[in-house]
Amino acid sequence: MQESDIRTFLIAEAFRFIDRAVVLPGIRRIAMIGSLTSAKRDPKDVDILLTVDEDADLTALATAARKLKGAAQTRNKGADVFLANPSGQYIGRICQWRECGPGIRASCDAHHCGQRHFLHDDLDDINLDSNVVMNPPVEVWPTVVYHQEAARDLLPYLSRFRSNEERLSDHEASE
Question: Core-most of 6, 133, 140, 162, by most CB within 10 Å?
């Protein structure tokens, strides 16, 4: 498979995940970070950042994240779903295991394994920069916001998430 095909595949899988996530309760914002937001020809993974309510049930989100990760692994690539709270604080990643709870996995390195099901708070290993959390390269949902120039091949996917107000504004500007 050519590099451009890999990139196209990963972008499609990222947006398949986003389509699953936007309907889940407790999701406040979905953003893309990492190499897919740039024009990098051979990205190593998909990186998605979600802002979630403090009491959001992460079970369905974990299922969607495992599907994304599994799809990426079919091409020897990876995927991570990072989480932030509504205050803009990075809180960890989605747990990769189908079953999540204290004592289920001896190898779990989450600080508070099972305290919040499917939250993998391995903050000693991975901790996103607060600027990335507050101003990710591309916010996809609920409104598309560019904090940096997005790769051109993302634009057709992002256009599906533009608000009606933005489309109206574009239409009025072209008249």
Answer: 140
Nearest to 61 by CA among 4, 117, 121, 140: 117
For 87, the domain range is: 3-174
Total-model pTM: 0.82
DSSP E strand stretches across the chain? 27-33, 45-52, 78-84, 90-94, 119-120, 138-141, 145-146
| Cα atoms found within 13 Å of the Cα of residue 46, Cβ hemisphere only | 29
Is 26 a residue whose pLDDT tops 80? yes
Non-local CB neighbours of 75 within 8 Å, separated by 6+ positions: 1, 6, 9, 10
Residue of 94, 103, 90, 96 whose CA lies nearest to 134? 90
At residue 53, what are phi and psi to the nearest 5 degrees? -60, 150
Measured on CA atoms in the order 86, 91, 93, 98, is the torsion positive or negative?
negative
For the chain, state the CA radius of gyration. Answer: 17
Residue pLDDT, tens place only, 75-127:
999 999 999 999 999 888 886 655 655 555 445 555 445 554 566 555 556 67
Looking at the 3D structure of the chain, how many domains does it have?
1
